[in-house]
């Protein structure tokens, strides 16, 4: 009986973290798209002198990232994305574990999380819409295409955020006994 309980707890733990990884992949997608929009806002307001020195931290994936002599294709982006998803998941789980060990419990209702997320994303995209006329494009191009891109990004970000919340909440139902 003890072995069956252990197997059940291990199965719950594995399934829980598979769900959490899927949830955090949706969260990371929402964050990356939102960061892209924030970069558009930033480069429109501040200027376009951006560099990506943080990629040197991913040299364990591709040594070319260390020297800064690389081309960033879809394969490299997905490799970085996978590592970032895992790191975000591990970090959040560690923070929750530390809070639990110290007796700190932050309870926010599921509905309230969705509302806060929606408001936060809406404010960012509202700013993007307001600065859209100022976005510099090449001669003869039309800025109005950015409205369409922002709408698509907004919809993807909101849906990804909601899927994250649903999967994250669903994963809590598979909490093994030793985590309760």
Largest sheet: none
Helical/strand content category: mainly alpha
Assembly of the depicted chains: single chain
Distance between the termini: 20 Å
Spell the H/E element sequence.
Answer: HHHHH
Q: In total, how many domains does the architecture comprise?
A: 1
Helix content: 55-70%
SS field, number of helical segments: 5
How would you sum up the global shape? globular
> Segments where pLDDT lies below 50 for 5+ residues?
none
Note the beta-strand portion: under 5%
Q: What would the keywords be for this entry?
A:
180 residues; mainly alpha; 5 helices
What features would you describe in this structure?
The protein is mainly alpha-helical. It has one domain (2-179). Helices cover 69% and strands 0% of the residues. It is globular. The mean pLDDT is 80.
Task: Give a short summary of the structure.
By secondary structure, the protein is mostly helical.
What order do the helices and strands come in, and which of them pair?
Elements: H1 2-45, H2 64-67, H3 74-101, H4 110-131, H5 145-171
Helix pairs in contact: 1-3, 1-4, 1-5, 4-5
